[in-house]
Amino acid sequence: MAITDIDAYAHLTAADIEALGAELDTIRRDVEDSRGERDARYVHRTIALQRVLAAGGRATLLFSNRRIAWCAGTAMLALAKIIENMELGHNVMHGQWDWMNDPEIHSSSWEWDTTCPSVQWKHSHNFVHHKYTNVVGMDDDVGYGILRVTRDQRWEWWNIGNPVYNLILATAFEWGVALHHLEVEKIRRGDKTWRQALRDLRIIGTKVGKQAAKDYLIYPALSGRNWKTTLTADATANLIRNYWAYLVIFCGHFPDGAEKFTTAELAEEDQPRWYLRQMLGSANFRAGPLMRFLSGNLSHQIEHHLFPDLPSNRYEEIAVRVRALCDKYDLPYTTGSLARQYLQSFRTIAKLALPNALLAATADDAPETASELRFAVRAGMQEHFGVDPATGKRRGLRTALRELKRAPIRAAA
């Protein structure tokens, strides 16, 4: 099962968690107090770059019957769509730039270049996902309603298609995000009526119509005789953007170490424990400046989940302080190469196509599903939390996980 007691899982005392929360609050205040011209210049330059790439791509595709023009135009358009989707749309709608009081770059007015209506995305993502991150049954991003990504999700016969659904979702990622707000699971449970779903579908249909008309009718028509090659270029640019967005999001949410939680954990959750849940439920991947930029700085998914409304260009410097806190409180800082994080995510998706009875390990002690009970099934595990009186060092989750690898499984009574 997923984590029900985050204090016990993290191997921290209540005082430790309060102190950790206070230090993260200090990081937030420091960044808020230092926002200024440097940050404003960054977002304005990003917008300018995105618009130049989009305009250049569209102009080049007027000659899309020539192979070099098709390739160059498609590449520029795909980059423009990636930047608009990841570093602008996603982050602007989180309110990261609301402090500037610029109506053009404000979460209340931005409509991004994708099929998902911003009003629906801000509810399903900003509110539901970021408030209930990785809480099974509350956060619909846990599997997106079609993938089984934790053993806490009951296996049903149709889960055997997990790898196929994964490929379909990656290919049509913007469409999956658009339909995400329908909350299919709630409809299945009867918590949401078909009348409500149809109302949401009408809003989605309006946005989809605008996007389809722009990419697959208006711009191809402007190319005159070259409309067919422009149409394929637009479709290819959207496909590239879909695969990239999917890759970034999955690498931040489903590698080993991105833990899941039960609703029981929410009963006593305060701000420090919310912070701790974000740290344990997210994963980063290593990236240089270019990859960080193209990922919308979501290579720092841990920092984004801690501070979703702080400017994304600050995540790299925030990460230095967050990592230091992980060292101080003996907590894991889940990161790895992009390839490693995705291969772990895909392994989970492929493995959980099968029922639990056919899987190794247990529902409390598996790479993709863990709870505080994982420590109880191992013999010789120390149970004290906080500062170790013998060494004077804090003993937290990082140390407990190291001991877990060495401890034999406890024999049944």
Automatic annotation (TrEMBL):
Pfam families: FA_desaturase. This is Acyl-CoA desaturase. Residues 71-335 form the Fatty acid desaturase domain. One of its GO terms (molecular function) is oxidoreductase activity, acting on paired donors, with oxidation of a pair of donors resulting in the reduction of molecular oxygen to two molecules of water. It comes from Nocardia veterana. One of its GO terms (biological process) is lipid biosynthetic process. Transmembrane segments: none annotated. GO terms for cellular component: membrane.
